[in-house]
Amino acid sequence: MKIATFNINSVRIRQNDLLEWMNNDGIDIVALQETKAQDKDFPLAGFIDAGYQAVFKGEKGKNGVAIVSRQQATDVRFGLTGTGEAEEARLIEARFGDIVLINTYVPQGRDVDSPYFQYKLGWLRGVKSYLTAHFSPEQQVIWLGDLNVAPEPIDVYDPKKLYGQIGYHPDEHEAFAYTKAWGLEDVFRKHVPNGGYYTFWDYRVANALKRGIGWRIDHILATAPLAAKSVNAYIASHLREKERPSDHAPLVAEFTL
């Protein structure tokens, strides 16, 4: 089974590229972030016509999460605190047999000195409370998505220059490690221990992909029982070369189930 995460930065603009890639790569499940589509505008028909199912939660003009899959999702749940409608569209959970996927779009944080940064830190730590309330590390659980944190020096193109900035700040590292310590393993790092692999390249940086000016801020983290079944992981960076690409590329983990 191939499970992916992708900040698509508008599902309506990039649906055709997404479906072409999913079919060519044999992707079974993809977690999407920044769908940027209200529920009434989500292009569900296009996914159904291509042989996929989708569950989703959107907002006007921003955020938005979805899970697109070959198999029908069950036990779908929205929101970090369970209030659902009152929350931003940043978390969607779904079950596929014995596997639970928790797809999140973690707040970016804007500026270290802003209240949005503290909101981000609280949100990251809140995922641990969510996991503790609903699951145990002995279950097959995946936390994946655009987590907006590069946790290690090898996850950014210039760790000395970027240290302390949004996305590569020690407070973010602490919050990320706090939640990961619930019982999650970095599936990509299990298979790709060396640096130079990124999932995000800023639009504002000319030729960022070719120049290797990137960040690894999208992640697939799994509990030990599921991580043990992972056999491969890779970044589909060629999607960043499309005519109208997202500023992210999909991250894929493959499991033998």
Folded structure, characterized:
The protein is 27% helix and 25% strand. The mean pLDDT is 96. Strands 3-4-2-1-12-11 form a six-stranded mixed beta sheet. It has a six-stranded mixed beta sheet with strand order 5-6-7-8-10-9. By secondary structure, it is an alpha+beta fold. The chain contains eight helices and twelve strands.
Briefly characterize the structure.
With 257 residues, this protein is of the alpha+beta class.
**How much helix, percentage-wise, in residues?**
25-40%
* Overall geometric form: globular
Strand fraction: 15-25%
Largest sheet: spatial strand order: 3-4-2-1-12-11
C-alpha end-to-end distance:
7 Å
H/E series: EHEHEEEEEHEHHEHHEHEE
Task: Give the structural class.
Answer: alpha+beta
Question: How many DSSP-defined strands?
Answer: 12
What is the mean pLDDT?
96
Uncertain regions spanning at least 5 consecutive residues? none
> What is the helix tally?
8
